[in-house]
Amino acid sequence: MSCKIGLAAILMVASVSQANSTEEPPLTAVSQRDGIDWVECLAIDPQNPEVVYAGTFGGGVFKTTNGGSTWKAINSGITDNSVEVIAVDPKNVNVVYLGTAAAGIFKTTNAGARWKAANNGDPHIELHGISAMAIDPVTTSNIYAGWEGGGLYKSTNAGARWESVGDIILQPGTIAVDPKRPNTVYVGHFGVHKSTNGGRNWKPTSLSDEALVTQLVVDPKAPNNIYAVTMTTGLYRTRNGGKTWQKTGFPDNYVSALAISASNPNVLVGAGIDGIFRSADRGATWERVCQFLLANAMAIDPRDPGIVYAGSDCVGKTTDRGVSWVSVGQGMSDGCSYWEYCNGTR
Domains of the chain (ranges plus CATH)? Predict the structure, then answer.
């Protein structure tokens, strides 16, 4: 999954929001504890949702095997502790890939016990931060990776070797693969581009290149439905594979993260300046389920849409569709209790 906004942007927008807010939030947007500045991304094991991976800025990768009750750092073999994106192989969940800010791609074949660099092929991979990654869900040896400076790479052998692909220069901030037609791939950054031949050729969709797209989320059951998260102009949706786009009813123009339920794609959870919001009608209407906190990563339990994880300076969790939240960062950072403020009861 990809959840890219970036720490600097989060801090900048959070400070502006707090300055303009009439309510005084009970915490700052980011606090540093034990070398962890921010949770950059979350990925849930699709076969065992008790297993969740959290990529952090400065602390590497953490893993829970008990639904967030405890977390353990799993950084053996990783040479860069700033993790931008994590992708779990849906067919072999022991295989996990991660992209780092300055050391390229790493891969584990034993669920994080040990990582190895996977940067063979194009020499630019290891030199740049990997901002986006997506696995072909049908042929999982096909993987796409990109960096915002201008490069899209593809591996057809499970990360053993990478090659630059595409007939135009793309700047991928996010990548998504159609789960039913995996040769159809989308890349977002300045607008959204689409390929129907596995990345060889690309055409722009109708979404304006003025929209700074940081995340693309594909409906797993109706993949022509795609959501485009932007930092400046809100949340967009297409119902026809990118031919036309419309803004959803998401209440913020700045959207920091979005997740869709695999078991019930009507359910979306998104984060913005004014908190975390939930939709039960594919984004037409939204209800705020958490105030004050600015999350940079969201993930929904693939079996239960009422269970949601969100990342800020640690991880928060709800099991009741957002009615209440708890901090589940034990082992990740000390004193992480801010999530109890979500419902205003603390």
Answer: 7-341 (2.130.10.10)
